Recover the amino acids of this structure.
């Protein structure tokens, strides 16, 4: 089975769709007033297509730039996302009922989900490496069986909130998980059907006056025997085709919702969000205990989860990411360098290193300064080097001090000459320090 077809982001209704959809557009339903959802395309059973690489510039000076994906000014989920499941249809005795909640319980805090911390907004907030399990409800075909519309998916979420089956949560992402007997057709001016065109999608809309983020994920068992699939291999690491296939799609939709919850934050010039850029790419794989292919272990289970796009160091698909930030304080008083290489600066710089690896930092004072101390190290060698284990995103500070002692009386006499209308002239106080033996 080939690794599959690229994922497609459902565009807002005022953007061109023909480039990305496999079929023509249909008219939006009258009650569907939300923007078009972001769509995770199904995989071809006989072909592989490359993921696109964006070349357009970033749009916001405060957000991370230059990594093949663009910030468009909208919000991200900077508070911990809370995941709610709505089991729609017949899930009697399904293994997914235990496998998928367990997946959510161990997704946050993982090296994999840490990739999303590379996404920020124009206020400096980042998506956290955290996911909270909120609970679940069952829906016994409140909108019927057969084929559901996009409006039906929103209605299923609304029903769960109205009945109190699930709480209305501003941090919530509500996932509608449909059983294998249920089909779903897109709406909002988009054409396409579950299995033949997509495996899942996410959107947002107003429910009871609140902006609610929600997603559709179907049972991939429905796709077996068709020309497109929503699971990579017939043999799966937890021995359940439905749950294992859905786990990858769930990860895809959660990370896209966290970084682009309102369809106006992070996506590239092709309209692809972070997970779209790596859809059906799984990276290095290993054999799970049952012989199936897997690529990550979360908790006590193995999974095969698609890669995600790292918004750092030029951008790339990856299964894990940890970032080390090193600072020299004060800036320009000394330099910090690393082994393995990647960190070299006299101010603040960052670099991604292999999760779980050890990085050694060396502090070198500049002229007129001496090294003082480290902050944030796991250990300090006998030669004064800082060692850090990349158990997650880490921050280290090398503190430096003046090599000479400031003549305080000289400085106190000099400082009044720096005052104009009660304010110190820029740079004058620093000049006084240098004139009086400081740095």
């Amino acid at each position: 089975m080939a690794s599959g077809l690229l994922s497609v982001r459902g565009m807002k209704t005022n953007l061109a769709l023909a480039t990305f959809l496999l079929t023509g557009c249909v008219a939006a339903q009258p009650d569907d007033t939300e923007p078009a959802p972001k769509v995770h395309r199904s995989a071809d059973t006989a072909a592989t297509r490359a993921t696109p690489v964006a070349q357009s510039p970033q749009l916001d000076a405060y957000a991370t730039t230059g990594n093949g994906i663009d910030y468009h000014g909208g919000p991200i989920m900077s508070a911990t996302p809370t995941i709610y499941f709505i089991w729609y249809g017949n899930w009697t005795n399904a293994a997914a009922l235990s496998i998928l909640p367990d997946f959510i319980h161990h997704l946050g805090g993982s090296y994999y989900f840490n990739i999303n911390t590379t996404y920020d907004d124009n206020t400096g907030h980042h998506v956290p490496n955290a996911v909270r399990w909120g609970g679940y409800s069952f829906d016994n075909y409140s909108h019927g069986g057969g084929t559901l519309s996009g409006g039906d998916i929103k209605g299923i979420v609304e029903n769960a909130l109205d009945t109190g089956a699930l709480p209305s949560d501003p941090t919530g992402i509500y996932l509608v998980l449909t059983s294998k007997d249920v089909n779903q057709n897109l709406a909002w001016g988009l054409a396409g059907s579950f299995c033949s065109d997509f495996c899942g999608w996410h959107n947002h809309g107003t429910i009871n006056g609140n902006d609610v983020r929600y997603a559709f994920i179907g049972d991939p068992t429905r796709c077996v025997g068709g020309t497109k699939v929503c699971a990579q291999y017939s043999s799966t690491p937890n021995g359940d085709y439905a749950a294992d296939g859905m786990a990858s799609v769930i990860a895809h939709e959660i990370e896209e919702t966290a970084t682009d919850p309102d369809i106006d934050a992070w996506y590239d010039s092709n309209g692809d969000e972070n997970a779209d850029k790596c859809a059906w790419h799984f990276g290095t794989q290993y054999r799970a205990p049952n012989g199936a292919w897997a690529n990550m272990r979360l908790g006590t289970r193995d999974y095969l989860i698609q890669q995600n796009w790292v918004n750092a160091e030029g951008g790339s698909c990856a299964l894990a990411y940890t970032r080390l930030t090193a600072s020299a304080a004060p800036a320009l008083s000394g330099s910090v360098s690393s082994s393995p290489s990647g960190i070299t600066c006299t101010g603040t710089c960052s670099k991604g290193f292999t999760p779980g690896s050890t990085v050694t930092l060396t502090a070198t004072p500049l002229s007129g300064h001496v090294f003082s101390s480290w902050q944030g190290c796991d250990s300090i060698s006998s030669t004064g080097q800082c060692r850090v284990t990349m158990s997650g995103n880490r921050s280290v500070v090398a503190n430096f001090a003046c090599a000479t002692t400031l003549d305080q009386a000289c400085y106190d006499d000099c400082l009044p000459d720096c005052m104009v209308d009660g304010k110190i002239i820029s740079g004058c106080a620093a000049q006084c320090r240098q004139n009086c033996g400081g740095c």
Notes: Helices lie at 96-107, 150-162, 241-259, 408-414, 428-435. The chain has a mean pLDDT of 86. The radius of gyration is 26 Å. The first strand starts at residue 38 and ends at 41.
